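**Protein of interest**
===
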Amino acid sequence: MTQDDSFPHWQGHRNRLRQRLINRGAKALDDYELLEIISFAFIPRRDIKPVAKALLKRFESLSGILAADPASLQSVKGVGASTAAYIAASRELGTRASRETIQARPLISNWSALLTYVRNELQHEPREQLRCLFLDRKNQLIADEVLALGTVDHAPVYPREIARHALEKSASAIILVHNHPSGDPTPSQSDIEVTRQIIDALEPLDILVHDHLIAAKNGVTSLKTKGLI
């Protein structure tokens, strides 16, 4: 038996990759190498690099991979149910960690973390959805709820429903959030008009609308920062 037969090239690659991560930290690894690392336990006897690169090609980015549903992940050759489940769990861990970050301090003073959370949650959603962040008197998060689901370019919005949910939660303020599946976070005229309707509906109840954030692959837009509300 030759040395190559007894020690496959991918096994040596795995050992080197693990050691690089331990010695230099995860930031020293490329995107596909990080994918290789998390796949090692579930694909034990083959070269993982082609699988990792196929995932990046199929979903275009790490965030796209993490946002993909398990069935879509398994459409990539070499990705089985265990790997797909692990990737889905990794996304949820990241989401929960981000939520802990925005819950730790008032959102108004934690804006950068909020924008990261919003973008990670919504940038790859295939359908438009409206979410509402309900805040207490200290501007700390009470709840993050999906209030409406729509087609690829429209989610129905009912100001009275938003008011009802806010009252039920004893919210003092809200932040509206929705996504543009097109990838462009530029507010539409409809986005602006609906936001103003919601502001008008909540004003008599002394519930503030701090902002309306639009998330997409190309970023997050704040209507307040744009001077649109």
